[in-house]
Amino acid sequence: MPQQRTLTVKKGQKTYTRTLTSQTTEFTCQSCRRKTHREHFPGPTPKYCAMCAPIVRAEKNAERQATYREKRDTALMLETLIALTSATEDARR
């Protein structure tokens, strides 16, 4: 059953109201390759079914965090190396 959502946007003196109606869309889950029907509002077609979405979200989050940690650790090691190098040079003078 289609749902409706009303959006109100105020631009300066004018106010615009728009009513969005959900639509049932059939798509193939990019993870499990099953055909799925989902009710959603206008926008991009979903990529993952309800069962795969939380798993994929967790995997992508873990990958993002690992990349962040790797960059952070590399920056810290580089910073430490620069500090040690400059301390060594100062001791030689």
Q: Any overview of this molecule?
A:
- The chain has 1 helix and 4 strands, in the order ββββα.
- The protein has one helix at residues 53-92, and strands spanning 4-11, 14-21, 23-28, 35-40.
- It starts with a strand and ends with a helix.
- It has 2 domains: 1-49, no CATH class; 52-84.
- Strands 1-2 form a two-stranded antiparallel sheet. Strands 3-4 form a two-stranded antiparallel sheet.
Principal-axis shape equals: elongated
The structure class reads: alpha+beta
Order of helices and strands: EEEEH
Largest sheet: 2 strands, antiparallel
Helix content: 40-55%
Determine the N-to-C terminus distance: 79 Å
Total of helices: 1
- State which percent range the strand residues make up: 25-35%
Please outline the helices and strands.
Blueprint (H helix, E strand, L loop, with lengths): L3 E8 L2 E8 L1 E6 L6 E6 L12 H40 L1
Antiparallel strand pairs: 1-2, 3-4
Short description:
The protein is α+β, with helices and mostly antiparallel strands. The protein has one helix spanning 53-92, and strands spanning 4-11, 14-21, 23-28, 35-40.
Keywords:
2 domains, two-stranded antiparallel sheet, 1 helix, 43% helix
